[in-house]
Amino acid sequence: MSEPSPASLPSSVSQPLFLLSFRHRDELAAVLSRAGWRAIAARRATGLEARFIASGATIAVVDARGAFDEGLAAVQALAEPTQSNAAALLVLLSRRDVSRLDQLYAAGATHYLASPFGDDEFGQALRFAVRHADRLASGWRGEESGAAASMAWRFSDGVLHLGGGLAGVSDGARTAGALYRRLDAEGRRAAREAFRRLRDGSDATAFTHRLPGSGEPVAHHLQRLPGGIAGTIEALAPAVAGRRRFRDPLTGLADAGEARRWIAAAVRRGAGTCLLLVSVNRFEMVNAAYGRATGDALLKAAARRVERLAEEVGGRRTLVARMAGASFLVGVAPGLAADRARLLAEHIVDAMARPFMPDAEPVSVGCRIGGVIAGEGEEDPTEMLRRASAALAEARDQDSAPIRLLSGSDALAAGREERLAVDIRTALVQDEIDILFQPQVAVATGAIVGVEALARWRHPVHGELGAEMLFAAAERSDHIVQLSEHIQRRAIAAAAAWPPALGGLRLSVNIVAADIGRPGFAEHFLAIVDAAGFSRARVTVELTESGLIDDLNAAADLLAALRAGGCRVAIDDFGTGYSSLAYLKALPLDYLKIDKRLSDDITGSSRDRVVVRGVIEMARSLDLGVVAEGVESEEQLALLAEDGCTYYQGYLCAMPLATAELAALVADWSETRPG
Known about the structure:
Distance between the termini: 66 Å
CATH superfamily of the largest domain: EAL domain
Number of domains: 4
């Protein structure tokens, strides 16, 4: 059997690359995709640091052509996380801006490419950036003699692709089973446990074993992907007494490469390893105001303070390293409880808040700290450092607390959210998003009169995910408009293909706040309805209450245009936002949908019911129909009917259904509950 090429493996095996381009995002992403990269592409710099960290990329590309100042700001934001995570930072710039290269270098760029350039030149620049990142990693990602040791196993046919450190010792093994049989007993046990963790739902895990033949110890880092499993092999040098430690020349602390080796060794020893990333505030301002010599002196003094506290609180096995620029890593070996990790972080914050005296006058800086504590089971060291970087980004974003410490399930949840944000683009391209329909029932007659279209994400790893998680991932990844239109198109097309039995039902589809600001959105939406062959008169457009607040005038204009085009409009989830009678009066509406929490409240205290009744009476006074969401009991329905509710939807009638299930329910419903 011939060895499968990397191109035949699942697409997710390709190397991720983070791209920020203010003007050419899609064109560059297409070029990168053709070259075999998995581009995580952004057009706006919002949440830039967190998005880069979540991407898992070792290359960041900032396209500053025609937007130098914005690109410079992006480089400044990415400098520290790229250095801390052993990544390269390539800047694309216009030829006229080459004279400003010193600014990009000072901001943290490692490579540049000036336009005009072709695809081949771009590819060569990326290869230089890859080599730079590999050297920074110092073996962290499993390189051996310049060739990455890797594994990819496809679920579809069981074929195993081996590279780098394993290719020469596989002895013809082309399936996971064949390679497994070549491991020793201890390696087999570790492999079984790792694959059990993946089978039980872990996204990533690791195990150690010795290479067949040479007996060299390695750590095998596995990641579950759509269609298969990918692995990276990290060479584990045997412990040697007095092994040379690599030092940062300015502070004398361990350098970034040494820190990564320490993390790999510590997490193998068990749960409880703690990483704290400490970032000195306003360091660039100190450099600019007092000069680099003063900045260097401040960093040396900061290093001494962090080092002293780390040893006092964490013990002698604690590592302190300078990762990049003005950031330090404090690593505490297994055994430190979470409360002591937080205590150490608090001591460091207090110490860094005290003025420094690098020259004759005091300088105050302060710091932010992001940390993570390894939970039970083997951790992936790379992912653990990335989660600490993500926690630091969160600490920078929050105004009050300077510390963001993740542990156990919190860290896993944060990592999962960031990975979902990366996966959303693939979900749109590979059609992983389904449309279901939840019936809406007329309270007076008991007849099913319409449905709301709801999205479900068939994630290849996490299974079915609801709309809330889907839209949160789209918000994080800057794909909210694309997702909104995708769902609108899918829902309207599905309704247009309904069987005759559903021909009388109305269809409610959601729009998001971002749609309000899109030029010509009303005409675009109506064109989608017309192209599908669905009647405009059967469409209700729903906008959440919170989406109306930012630009009330624009929302009013949009809803008026949709109504003039023949659709009806509704406010969704009413009761979760500001509930302002003033803007309800200002908007051209047909329906008000009260949130599930208000439907729940109607069976609560007398005060709760007064609030719900007041909302319904307010809507009816404005000649609006009222739809109650989340109705699950006959008691709720009876009270809502008594108070004047017009329609309801919820599990009392049915959960969200596919078209065939919906048709069967409508046929059944008309027989058992005649109107």
